[in-house]
Amino acid sequence: MIYLITAFYSEAKALIDHFGLKKLYEPSKFQIFSGDEILLIVSGEGILQAAIATTFALTKFGASDRCIALNIGICGAKEKKLSKGDVLLCNKIINHHSKKTFYPDILITHQMKEASLESFLHPVKKDTFFGEIEGDIVDMEGAGFFEAASSFLAPHNVQCIKIVYDFLAYEKIEPQEVTILVKQCMPFIENFINTLVDLNLKFCTNIFEEEKLRQIIEKLKSSLRLTASITFQLEKLLKSYIIRHENLPEEISEFFNVNVNSKKEGKQYFEKLKKLLIS
């Protein structure tokens, strides 16, 4: 299932039209639209609303290894190095208020520019906001969506796509203009979705590698005396490597029979292994 989360109907309309989605009369406070393997939910404005809507969708309709969740919507740009209508894939997502920072796993090539996104609880206008803005672009939903979706789905399957609407100086958002901007970006969005679907299909159909992966994780966890949290990081790194290279590096066997005497030493070996896996 591909989950699309937008804040407003004006952002959703181009997606609904393009994918031929139909309104789903499901008892909930959200507008929901569905089609072949696609479910779109209109969350409403704000970090909390985005998190609630995302959690609702993934618990109500299910989450599997192949599921993809995308937050798609407009944003404000801090600098004019970007242009109105630019479609951006977010490579860093910051919750301005909790200071939590997230780094999406971007494992595929794509045709979009990349930018860091900072989410606020309120609209940001440069003539009334005097705080520091860390992100290249700002919105009010991305961080809430990403934190919620990441609790259910594989890291590479949770992504934010934003479209530049203004430069923090808007007076009023025009719904028709928003729909047109999203419509213009549909080739980029559809291509990104198709590439992610192909990637998941390729990875999930490799059952032998999945079983082999579990055995390797247990070997490394034991030999390097890894904690639960580092073992979780290891699993993500191994899966990412397999997705990029279709197999694991031969050098990984050198870590199977290491005699580690302390957790500190194990962590040092893990850092060496990490360098190998991110190459």
TrEMBL record:
It comes from the Bacteria. GO terms for cellular component: endospore-forming forespore. GO terms for molecular function: 4 iron, 4 sulfur cluster binding; DNA photolyase activity; S-adenosyl-L-methionine binding. GO terms for biological process: nucleoside metabolic process. InterPro entries: Nucleoside_phosphorylase_d, Nucleoside_phosphorylase_sf, SPL. This is Purine or other phosphorylase family 1. It comes from Caldicellulosiruptor hydrothermalis (strain DSM 18901 / VKM B-2411 / 108). Signal peptide: none annotated. Pfam families: PNP_UDP_1. Residues 5-101 form the Nucleoside phosphorylase domain.
